[in-house]
Amino acid sequence: SQTIHQWPATLVQPVGSPLSLECTVEGTSNPNLYWYRQAAGRGLQLLFYSVGIGQISSEVPQNLSASRPQDRQFILSSKKLLLSDSGFYLCAWRGPRGRETQYFGPGTRLLVL
Amino acid sequence: AQKVTQAQTEISVVEKEDVTLDCVYETRDTTYYLFWYKQPPSGELVFLIRRNSFDEQNEISGRYSWNFQKSTSSFNFTITASQVVDSAVYFCALSADYTGANSKLTFGKGITLSVRP
Questions:
Q1: Which of B35, B43, B101 sits opposite A88 (nearest CB)?
Q2: Which residues does chain A have within 8 Å of residue B37's beta carbon, measured at their own beta carbons?
Q3: CA of A107 to nearest chain B CA: how many angstroms apart?
Q4: What is the average pLDDT score of chain A?
C-alpha cells in the first residue's frame, strides 16, 4: 500500500531564515505530487505540482520554490521566510490515470516569527 | 474557472442528530471529479469519497451518504446519527479530468462540524 510522509511535523522559524520541507511517497511509481498551503481561516491553496523528476509548475507567485530530485521526493524551500509564509503545508500524491484521488500527508505546521 | 462553494461555515449538532453538509460547484468541464475530505483536529486530510461526473448514483457508506445532482451542481454529504468523533472540518473539492495542473483540487472553504455529547 501507498504511504506519504512529511517532515518535520512542526517548525518555528525566524523571519529571514531558510526553509526546507520534505515529502516522500512509498509504494507507487511516477506519482503526481502537490504542495498545498492552508493558512489561518482554513482555505487550501495549491502552491506547486510536479508530474515527474525535475518538472515543477508553480500556481501562485510567492516566496517559495519546489524541487523534485527523485521520483517520490518533493521538497518545498525558501531562501528567506516571511511572516506570511506561516501556515499548514500539505503534500499530496495522485496515482496513475484512472485513480484520480489525491491522498494527503500528515502536514507540517510552520510558524514564522 | 472552477469554484466550490460551501455556504455553511459552522454547524453544531447534538449527538445522534442527522446533519447535511452542502456543496455547490461550478465548472465548464464535462468530465470532472468531486470529493469530500475530513480534517480532524490533527490536521491531516482524510479522503472520504470520490464521485465521477458521469455517475450520479448516490452512495451510502455506513452512517455517511452522498447526494450528487448535476442538475443543481450539488454534492451534499449527510451524516446520520452523528457522533462526537465526527467533529472535524469537512471539505468539498473539485478536480478536472486531466493530468498535471488540471488535476489540481479546487477546495471549498470547509465546514466546521461540532457534535456535542
A1: B43
A2: 104
A3: 6
A4: 91
Query: Does A59 sit within 8 Å of B101, measured CB to CB?
Result: yes
- Chain A residues whose CB is inside 8 A of the B91 CB are 44
Whether the upstream peptide bond of residue A8 has omega within 30° of 0, thus cis, is: yes
CB B100 to CB A49 under 8 A? yes
Q: Does A13 touch chain B (CB under 8 A)?
A: no
C-alpha A69/C-alpha B17 separation (Å) is 49
Query: How far, CA to CA in Å, does A31 sit from each of A23, A75, A78?
Result: 12, 14, 24
Closest CA to B22 of B91, B86, B88, B99: B91
End-to-end CA distance of chain A: 38
Per-residue pLDDT at A50 exceeds 80: yes
More confident call, B102 vs A89: A89
- Residue with the bigger pLDDT between B70 and A60: it is B70
Higher pLDDT, B46 or A59: B46
pLDDT band at A98; cut points 50, 70, 90: low
**B110–A106 C-beta distance less than 8 A:** no
Evaluate whether B107 touches B91 at the Cβ level (below 8 Å).
Answer: yes
**Burial category of B99 from C-beta neighbours within 10 Å (exposed 0-12, middle 13-18, buried 19 and up):** middle
Q: How confident is the model at residue A43 (pLDDT cuts 50, 70, 90)?
A: confident
